[in-house]
Amino acid sequence: MSGLKIEIRGTVQGVGFRPWVYRVAHELGVTGRVHNHARGVTVEAFAADAALAALVATLRAPPLPARVRELVAEPLAGEPAEDFSIVHSAEGGPRALSIPPDLATCADCEREIRDPANRRFGYAFTNCTACGPRFTIATGVPYDRPATTMAPFAMCPLCRREYEDPRDRRFHAQPNACPVCGPKLALVAPDGTALAGEPIAGAALRLARGEIVAIKGLGGFHLACDATDEDTVARLRARKHRDEKPFAVMVADLATAHALATISEPEAALLASPERPIVLVARREPSPLARGVAPDTDLVGLMLPYTPLHHLLLAACDRPLVMTSANPSDEPICADNGEALARLAAIADAFVVHDRAIATRCDDSVARVIAGRPTLLRRSRGYVPRAIALAHAVGTPVLAVGAQLKNTFCIATGDCAYLGPHVGDLENLAALEFFEAAVARMENILSVRPELVAHDLHPAYPSTRYALGRGIRAIGVQHHHAHVASAMAEHGLTGPVIGVAYDGTGWGPDGTAWGGEILVADFARYERFATFRPIALAGGDAAIRQPWRIALALVDDAFGATASLPHLPVFDGRPTGVARAMIHRAIHAPLARGVGRYFDGVAAIALARGTTTYEGQLAVAWNLAAAPGDHAPYPSAIERGEIDLRPLVRAVVADVLAGVAPAAISARFHATLVAATIERVRAAVAARGPLPVVLTGGAFANPLLAEGIARGLPELRVYTHGEVPPGDGGIALGQALVADAVARG
Ligand code: ZN
Ligand code: ZN
Ligand code: FE
Question: Across the chain, what does the average pLDDT equal?
Answer without folding.
Answer: 93
